[in-house]
Amino acid sequence: MRDHLGRPLVAVTGIGAVTSLGFGVADNWSRLLAGQSGIRRITRFPTDHLKTAIAGTVDLPGGEGFTSPVRVERMAAMVMEEAIAEAAIGAAGNFPGPLFLGMPPVEIEWPVRFDLARRAHDPSYAGMTKQAERRADIYETYLYGGVGERLAARFGTRGAPISVTTACATGATAIQLGAEAIQRGECDACIALGADGSVHAESLIRFSLLSALSTRDDDPTKASRPFEKNRAGFVMSEGAAALVLENYETARARGATILGLVAGAGERADNFHRTRSNPDGRAIVGAMRNALADAGLEPADISYVNAHGTGTPENDKMETFGMRAVFGEDAPPISSNKSMIGHTLSAAGALEAVFSLLTIRDGRLPPTINHDEPDPSITLDVVPNVARDAAVRHVLSNSFGFGGQNVCLVLSGEPA
């Protein structure tokens, strides 16, 4: 079977997920439909004197002192194991395709720098650099491609692993790259994932200095409020999700269960500002329209939109503008998983793709919780507070990243 452009259909045969709500797809999905929040006070490091002291942390077993790259690798391995087991593909340690890994940028974190400064008795960069000489452990931990190399070796993926970061669109970019590799005939199967473990003091302070974070520390579960009148920033979170992608015909031939299709992907860059979208919305609108065109669909074919929905005043306004530009007054329901799991940054696009597939499978729209007071300027149906039954055939999943890196995916049910 081929799509409208003559390309192989891209099937999803396995999924895995980890968020602040729990470990595994089933646990996450049941809690998401129940409208539960995974946001809590940070205990990983001191938050005295910080404006924001909450996050959606993933507390890994034995995880005290883990650096961000180590957390990314641990979570990525968990979701890859779950997705590969569900897909029942390949022998253990011998996955029959490439790895596309979406993860955050990597830099040496404060605890390591402080330790180097203490050892050198010199807080200057020159002193720390000298102290770091011949420290292979530091080099290997913070080498950006190292995480992908170790995962590829562990799971036996084919070829050189591809590691990519496109800000908050990273997880969706990894899926797009995997789907396109299958469409070009470069492989019959691959695994695409996004993972982020960036809740550490330095990153929290940086986002806080951008006035991007919610400061509603008194009630963490109420802090993430996408599309709501009193929204005032996103909640930084962690998580990971993986999808096994296959050529549809190959998957059917081996008797795999088809969870859905990656029917289309659209991207559009916006170099307007480091954090803000261009007020004309052309990149957001263009990414959504490109995804629909790639899938061979019209706006009316979309049953539901999984929002980027961060809860910042700027993002929610621009996403609403984009929805109206693409769908007009007859926009489908849209809801934000980030109201419950926070903004998982590099993992968000992959997690939201997983939840979009489950929405199709179960015919249940996850809610946007904490929607206490509607914003009169946002007239979309945001599925407020309570999950809803609905017949869903095609889902548009939006991922709009800092720096204008925008990727939208169309996830669809299996062909009749």
TrEMBL record:
Ketosynthase family 3 (KS3) domain ranges (all copies): 7-413
Keyword Transferase appears in the UniProt entry: yes
GO CC annotations, alphabetized: cytosol
Pathway recorded for this protein: Lipid metabolism; fatty acid biosynthesis
A Gene Ontology BP annotation from the UniProt entry: fatty acid biosynthetic process
Annotated organism of origin: Muricoccus pecuniae
Pfam family, one: Ketoacyl-synt_C
Keyword tags: Acyltransferase, Transferase
Any GO molecular function: 3-oxoacyl-[acyl-carrier-protein] synthase activity
InterPro entries linked to this entry: Beta-ketoacyl_synthase, Ketoacyl_synth_C, Ketoacyl_synth_N, PKS_Beta-ketoAc_synthase_dom, Thiolase-like
Domain of life: Bacteria
Protein's UniProt name: 3-oxoacyl-[acyl-carrier-protein] synthase II
Protein family: Belongs to the thiolase-like superfamily. Beta-ketoacyl-ACP synthases family.
EC number, as in UniProt: 2.3.1.179
